[in-house]
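Exercise 7.
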Amino acid sequence: MPDPQAAAAESEAELTSEQRAAVASLLGSVGAVVTELGERFAGAGHELAVVGGPVRDALLGREVHDIDLTTDAVPQRVLELVDGWADAVWTIGIEFGTVGLRKNGHQVEITTYRSESYRLKSRKPDVSYGDSLYEDLVRRDFTVNAMAVRLPGGEFVDPFGGLADLAARRLRTPGRPEDSFSDDPLRIMRGVRFAAQLGFAIDGPVREAATAMSDRLGIVSAERVRDELVKLLLSPAPRVGVALMVDTGIADHVLPELPRMRLAIDEHHRHKDVYEHSLTVLDQAVELERARGMAPDLVLRLASLLHDIGKPKTRAFESGGRVTFHHHEVVGASMSRSRLGALRFPKDVVNDVSKLVALHLRFHGYGKGEWTDSAVRRYARDAGPLLSRLHILTRADCTTRNRRKAAALARAYDDIELRIEQLEQQEELDRIRPDLDGNEIQEVLGVGPGPVVGRAWKFLLELRLENGPMGKEAAAEELRAWAAGQERVD
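Solution. The predicted structure, written as tokens, is:
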């Protein structure tokens, strides 16, 4: 391996004036905090350096939010060095060698030089400490994350050509990719995430190793895999990362429903390639987000990607070569709930995504505007707070190349959105309630709390959806007639 001091000196000479300014800006972004820390550690005979993502992002001209530092001091020594200096200290990651602190409003994490490795079937990495910056960098995931800036002097360290790879927008590992992925299989997932997030290409040997070792993701906790998937989906180009996951076999161990959608193609190609269609819907949802000035929306992007995962299970061939996918939205909603639950997504995300998948076909019954106002009310009420996302998902789901058909669908959806808006001016659709509340229902019927009140409430709600606001007197009259009918049936 190259001599670390020689490599660092060589890399220092390669920096352009703009890159030197970026490094200076990185150090300046946290003001005196890192300089003071560097001096504090140096005075105690220890090394300290800014490392990884902050260095990479500064050189790319991206905004730097968090500062990661690395040191030869063990965690207990770090705690001693920052005691009385930091405004706050936390040790939640200390078992992995990390101490967090806050100083003058800046948040910093300091990690002891280390390497992590997984035993064959272990879900938790073994952590060992090192004593040199070079040893720490060689065990990092990719060369673009294996660059550092020493403190307090600001010396740029790049022993593995990360700067050149940054310029080439290329992902390589500092050592053999097989060793890197064996040390931490989650790096396989991080590679495709960086491809989507940064627009980098994965180097050939790295891609080959990721493909061959993708099954090693099985030993990584679902939470860590989920977090990488979330970052991938919220990236500027999620389709790139998703396609890489499928092409390399990573998806088989993370979202196995995705590659299975490629099977939903009949030999005569009488219907769309469901997998490619889903990627296009994801693309179009991202475009609609941007057009509407929205921040990246995880729920919307997950629903766009998964909305048709029920098709392989529901595919049927009928006479004349017709292919059907009856109730695939219901099956898909259940599958989405199961998969996202297995990946430990929060319950609200699981519920919202599965609901959007279940609703994504509802609009296609709208036709040329034949829905009554009550049907439009139900559509909006069933979507509830997800209505704006359902609007985008439904529009993104139109991938036909037939311009006339696409234009007709767009006009129809313009119409339903306008009708919803007009109805919302009359009443708040997502807060529709019967004209009588539970106490008033009991008073009209002369009953106490019980099942009959619940049934009466649902009856009045249907009336409200059908007719709009009725007023209390008319609602009470309808309720009495309903109750009389119930008594005759009983």
